[in-house]
Amino acid sequence: MTTCPFCEIAAGRAPATVVREWDDALAIVPRGGGITPGHLLVIPKQHVADFGEDPDVSAATMRRAAELAAGDQPMNLITSRGSAATQTVFHLHLHLVPRRAGDGLALPWTRQQKRGAA
Description:
By secondary structure, this protein is an alpha+beta fold. About 20% of the residues lie in helices and about 20% in strands. The termini are far apart. Residues about 110-115 have low confidence and may be disordered.
């Protein structure tokens, strides 16, 4: 088994820019700064592979993300489960991606909607 990078961050053994810390989760800046200004990852300190593995941990992590997202800033909250869904780090993480009109950031399904697919 390979070492989980988010477990290493949560344990203080790997570097990260921590924006907020709770007893059960961390909010960190993604490596490389993220895809928009203010992009954050919210990760549970407990290792769970994805949002389907432990509903209680997933709900608690979502609550932490919601605390950070309070206000009226437009944003996406994105998480993935499995390689086919673009998950590359198999530790639950929620992307908070602030948005602004005309930012040019397309979501994967935007193209399909424009072609008329549901």
